[in-house]
Design a protein that fits this description.
The structure is a single chain. The chain is an alpha+beta fold and about 220 residues long. It is built from two helices and eight strands, in the order H-E-E-E-H-E-E-E-E-E. An eight-stranded antiparallel beta barrel has the order 1-2-3-4-5-6-7-8. The termini are far apart.
């Protein structure tokens, strides 16, 4: 009796295992039969930034310069820069402007502190610049220009009132690149020098603002 029960138990167990195996195969076949859905993604074509790999930059600029006590006049100049790294650059600039008569000269009538040739104000500076915020500036919705905000400062010499004077300069500017080899600059600079036109030496602060164009090579 016990042997019959054991035989029936083994038969039932075998049937159960066989049924599970067939069920697993059916499920596996069903999974294999399900088609794989591939998502349709519209991929954008990304163009690399148009930044020229050349390190030298040369150009010209024009703007306005306020010479303390001598009015505001047009300034013209040129710049030459060498980009040491993506962050640092050195720049040599030179500019020239004419100056007006002082309020003292206008009120006194005939009295003139300077001759016409001495009224020309010219300078050159050697400065170090640092690009703080390189990035992009958008023009409209679809046009983006590579740009950079930078600070700059250095030393130089100013020729004014018949004498050459040591000059400090510092300022900031923006550089925009409409093409990989052309840049548009907008700068503000402060020129600090000592003058002694009336026999008393004082520090003169002369503010300059200009816009320029440069070319990389």
């Amino acid at each position: 009796m016990e042997s019959r029960i054991l035989v029936l138990f083994l038969i039932a167990a075998g049937a159960l295992v066989g049924g599970c195996g067939r069920g697993g195969l059916v499920q596996a076949e069903d999974r294999e039969a399900v088609p794989v859905i591939e998502p349709e993604i519209d991929r954008r074509e990304i163009e690399p930034a148009d930044i020229d790999t050349e390190d030298f930059e040369v150009g010209v600029f024009a703007g306005q310069m306020s010479v303390e006590d001598f009015g505001v006049n047009t300034v013209l100049g040129a710049r030459f820069a060498y980009h040491i790294t993506e962050k640092y650059f050195v720049e040599l600039t030179g500019g020239v402007t004419d100056t007006d008569r002082t309020s003292f000269e206008r009120l006194s009538g005939a009295a003139q502190l300077l001759t016409d040739s001495q009224r020309e104000y010219s300078y050159y500076n050697l400065s170090m610049g640092y690009n703080i915020f390189p990035g992009e500036s958008f023009v409209g919705r679809k046009r983006a220009l590579n740009s950079s905000f930078y600070v700059i400062g250095g030393v130089g010499s100013t020729s004014f009132a018949g004498d050459d004077r040591f000059t400090l300069n510092f300022g900031a500017g923006m550089r925009f690149l409409p093409l990989d080899w052309v840049a548009i600059h907008a700068d503000v600079r402060e020129h600090i020098l000592d003058v002694d036109l009336l026999g008393e030496e004082k520090t003169s602060h002369n503010l300059e603002a200009h816009i320029g164009i440069t070319f990389f090579f």
